[in-house]
Amino acid sequence: MLENLCLTCPACNRYKATRQTAPDPDTGRIVALYHPRRDQWYVHFAWTNDRQRILGITPTGRATVAALCMNRPQLVNLRRIWTKTDIVLS
After folding, report:
1. For residue 21, what are the β-bridge partners?
2. Per-residue b/e over 45-75, b at no fewer than 16 CB within 10 Å?
3. Residue 86 — very low, low, confident or very high, per pLDDT cuts 50/70/90?
4. CA-to-CA distance for 28 and 21, rounded, in angstroms?
5. Please, are residues 26 and 62 in contact by the beta-carbon 8 Å criterion?
6. What local confidence, expressed as pLDDT, does residue 85 receive?
7. What is the pTM of this model?
8. In this predicted structure, what is the pLDDT of residue 8?
9. Which residues are within 8 A (CB) of 76 and not within 5 positions of it... i.e. 6 or more apart?
10. What number is the average pLDDT over the span 14-19?
11. How far is the C-alpha of 81 from the C-alpha of 34, rounded, in Å?
């Protein structure tokens, strides 16, 4: 079971809960959510130019961004602070 663990913030963990799939907001098709142990971040996500919002660039990425509310105001505000203090976001 330890190989399935991944560090996440409590809010994202609550949004995900036990879901493994979610609808792609663009197509409505049910797709797998991003799996941090199997998938590569850069394949499914990109940063906006200001590096404050995460874009889903695949069905899995879009579904994950929507399902986990990855661009909720609190996170966007935190990223705004990080970018102003030159903290590197990978």
Report:
1. 32
2. beeeeeebbbebeebbbbbbbbbbebbeeeb
3. low
4. 12
5. yes
6. 80
7. 0.84
8. 73
9. 52, 53
10. 82
11. 26
Tokens in use for 44? 């499914």
Residue whose tokens read 């994202």: 12
pLDDT per residue as tens digits for the range 34-62: 998 899 999 999 999 998 999 999 999 99
Distance CA 80, CA 84 (A): 6
3-state secondary structure the chain: CHHHCCCCCHHHHHHHCCCCEEECCCCCCEEECCCCCCCCHHHHEEECCCCCCEEECCHHHHHHHHHCCCCCHHHHHHHHHHHHCCCCCC
Q: Is 46 left (phi over 0), alpha (psi -120 to 50) or beta?
A: beta
pLDDT at 87: 59
